[in-house]
């Protein structure tokens, strides 16, 4: 207990005597009663009893965090609480507003500085604003400004201003509402009017740190804690998880303030904390601004500095001038000498202070003022090998202010080196700032020198926690670590705690994220379309199995990891993949613009995003992925359209070129994997498919000519079938002097224009000339359309033979059967099975696991497998007399399955194809309809059966009456007596349970007949009117929806069918066995490579590949230029340009007004000087002390003419 000089009932801590415990009130050793209370000596620590979330009653539903803590709490614990436990985003700037706490009325222009200047600038940088968080003075103005900006800002804005209150616990009004030892979630807090010794919290703050030193009603107890927190934050890194290149800039802003603020400013300046003083706001702010502006530095006095002080001792003259200014601002202060010493100490660190005249300068460029203040302060503490420009650049990157960087740093006056931009480039990439990445790329940064595999792994290690990419990478990393020999370190890393996950994601050792994990994630998302990524960098064979690759990769990563210093082969493509996995839309689009193979890159991004959207659980993130995927598909469609308009042959080569960047895949393969229907609907893609479909024949050839030639093959030598003219051209030898250099590629425009067309680039060497007979024969029979026509004709004959066997010639089991026709049918199906095996296991270069996976993904392959399985089961059963009928039934069902395959065959038809797609969509609707129908049918059937029949245990009759009978009711096919018991005719029935169990027909119950009729009416009303019309509405919606894009759907399905028949032999089953024998001899005995494979895949190397990539880049640039021109012509872009011009005019008018004020002030000074000179002249003339040698000059005014 402590004395209070004025009132014996109150303690010096501010509490009443009665509120203390008895042990504090006693004086057992005559030492408890003292004259001065000290928090450190006379208070004790206890676990906090006020923490959690609070909700302000009568205000918005948004909740704020709060925590009561001691004034000596470590700032590291508090910062961890803010960023990790409360989930507040790490700041790019911290502005600590001090002073003005007790101001009852804040000046209007100060309010505007806080609203239009501070909060707006903080919003553009993603800042924290620290105040006392009370509903008084400047704290209330800041809260209102943050509320207004949060209301006006978009909900998706990433940079949001966070207002944090560092509040003295003893000043909070009605703080008992927050006390709950178990934590509040949330605590109800009612804000009230300001009182004398307390004030309510402001509801516009996101979090409150309630600092308690044991006192009540004392302001300023949080000052020391707040200063330590600011200093700790200033040593933390910006960016996600502290991945930035600079420390978090912290700026203290002084508004007004009492004399106790001088000590606060002095202590902060000693830790090199920059200050921004708002001149004109009153109090200490005006005092310091006047001292800094009016007092000029004087030469130091010869007396040595006092111990512990740095710098020279101020002169007596300076001290007198400062004392005069202090006396003018605080005339009644008792300890004037102390104030003078504090002001002089602050003056010695004037380089860290910036004075802002808000009333005169305005608030438009307040963000630039903040930047200049921080840069000015940073010049005093940066290393000797650093430059102020580098510090200013890092601040601009941290704030994402590319406009400041362009106007101040990249205006041509500074020559930037590659090494100067590396750290800032990494910061811009990690924190998703594509505008800075573009700026650095355009101003000296070489991406080839910048990005190596080690830096790429670092980018993946900074993946934010909680994202899909983070979880996928962590899963792959854990899978690799589980393959390693079990050690103590690996056991710790396999822990599932968040800290262990963070350790695994960061670092450069074998336990951190590597390119092997990235390759695993890409393989999971893209599938078997591409070869594994980054295997060449790790020294792995792409054909290795997963287990062997995992073992070898673990061995490589446990070694020296020398690959990390190697340059990334395709830097922009690697950054594009990284940005897509992070779901950074703008960054991904920019990297796509810079990467090569534009069309394929866009399709690959579309594939990645669509697969990621299937795995993403957050609905908002899933939607953003789908939108970005559709954007990439649109860009692939538009860019290829521009390529097709430029050159048809070049665009065809672009579609079938095997890409070294994207794992030896092609645009067509990636587009199919990405389900890019819009891309396949492009005219250029369809033109290539049509050209491949018809082979060397003209596309205008009628189908009846093909059918006739199929039955009479020698007609292919006549004019009945027309062929395209040969387009083979020999490459002209171009002299070396005609080449021009474009970057690292050597090409000439004549080379680009004379690239070989598709018809003559299917093979790498010139094909040998064949006789006319052989040539025409190959041109007709090797065309996919001929194979299709032959398969259709032979399939119809197969179905006719199958039907004939089932209906006419299906003999009994051996030895009576099978008949000859049935043996022919068996052989026919055998050839079909051989073709299925060839297509699945012998076509392409995939491994067995990948082949089986692709086979399962196709619905028609499943249909073929079902038909073949049923046929084999039926043939086996029909060979035994006991299973003969079952075998016949299986073959009948199998005939239906074989017949349904006709739908797949006719998907190539332009009119039938879209309708088949619509039917497929409607089948999905039927399943939903059958669910509702089944529920209602079962409900009515069970009730109807129970009402009509009291006892009938036979399952067959129960099934017919519960399900089959009500189903027939829908179509009105049931007899009337079955629906109405009262209409029962002459029917033999019994009520004997024994006879009923023996199979006799039970009699019907007449009691519930009235209810049966009512239920029947309701059942028919729901099924025939409600559900049937619901099905019609669903069909209508599906039809209208698909019909709008039916052409797109059909063109997409057409590609699959063309690829299938392109790979098939010329002959159809059963004659296809001859083609199989021919292929076996050519491929495995004579080792003759396939020629048709080059229709869909071609590998370009060297000069030819460079020319094609350069031509594609030119078309991409043309497309982007046209797109930019269209965007500049939109109304929003025009309005934006007009707004910029208006702002420029307003600034110029403000400057002109400033010049006008200066001219007026100069005129006033001139008038004063003129009047003074006139008075001096008059005085001298009238005085007799001095005799002038000549008369005074006369005033020369304007002469009138």
Automatic annotation (TrEMBL):
Segments forming domain Ion transport: 795-1046
InterPro entries: Ion_trans_dom, TRPM, TRPM-like, TRPM_SLOG
Cell inner membrane as UniProt keyword: no
Occurrences of domain TRPM-like (ranges): 408-682
Region (Disordered): 295-315
Topology versus the membrane: Multi-pass membrane protein
Membrane-spanning residues: 780-805, 860-881, 887-907, 927-951, 1010-1032
Record-level Gene Ontology MF annotations: calcium-activated cation channel activity; ligand-gated calcium channel activity
The UniProt record lists the keyword Transmembrane: yes
One Gene Ontology CC term in the entry: plasma membrane
Keywords: Ion channel, Ion transport, Membrane, Transmembrane, Transmembrane helix, Transport
Primary subcellular site in the record, as a coarse category: membrane
Localization per record: Membrane
Domain TRPM SLOG residues, every copy: 65-289
One Pfam family per UniProt: LSDAT_euk
Protein name, as recorded: Transient receptor potential cation channel subfamily M member 4
